[in-house]
């Protein structure tokens, strides 16, 4: 199970949906790496899934945390980490990502 002192409040499955035609696989993999380095003992899974044209979304369980079409840009790792932390480990200090 989990070996950290953090309390899991919500789920912990992240899905990064990306457009293969736009060649955003590398960006999706980089975001996945950032999240796994920060939350490796907390998240249950980080998946990368191809999607339709122009899509770049980050989902935590059933909630879309970031949609490139709606926001107009790719997610900033710092903001994304804070959003995930607030949902699954609200007492966790993210160090430099909290500043």
Write the layout of secondary structure elements.
Elements: E1 13-18, H1 25-39, E2 45-50, E3 56-60, E4 63-67, H2 68-71, H3 77-88
Parallel strand pairs: 1-2
Antiparallel strand pairs: 1-3, 3-4
Helix pairs in contact: 1-3
Please tell me about this protein's structure.
The protein has 99 residues and is α+β, with helices and mostly antiparallel strands. The protein has a domain at 10-62: Glutaredoxin, CATH 3.40.30.10. The protein is 31% helix and 22% strand. A 4-stranded mixed beta sheet has the order 2-1-3-4. Strand 1 (13-18), helix 1 and strand 2 form a beta-alpha-beta unit. Helix 1 (25-39) packs across helix 3 (77-88). The chain is globular, with a radius of gyration of 13 Å. The protein starts with 12 loop residues before the first strand and ends in an 11-residue tail after the last helix. Mean pLDDT is 88; it is low at 1-10.
Q: What do the pLDDT scores average to?
A: 88
The top-level CATH class of the domain at 10-62 is Alpha Beta
Do you know the CATH topology of the domain at 10-62?
Answer: Glutaredoxin
What's the CATH H-level superfamily name of the domain at 10-62? Glutaredoxin
Major sheet characteristics? 4 strands, mixed
What fraction of the residues are assigned to beta strands by DSSP?
A: 15-25%
Shape: globular
């Amino acid at each position: 199970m989990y070996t950290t002192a953090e309390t899991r409040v919500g789920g912990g499955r992240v899905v990064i949906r990306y457009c293969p035609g736009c060649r955003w696989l590398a960006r999706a993999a980089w975001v996945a790496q950032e999240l796994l380095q920060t939350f490796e003992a907390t998240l249950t899974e980080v998946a990368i899934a191809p999607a339709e044209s122009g899509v770049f979304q980050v989902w935590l369980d059933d909630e879309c945390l970031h949609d490139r079409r709606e926001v107009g840009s790719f997610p900033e790792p710092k903001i994304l980490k804070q959003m995930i932390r607030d949902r699954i480990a609200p007492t966790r200090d993210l160090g430099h990502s909290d500043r």
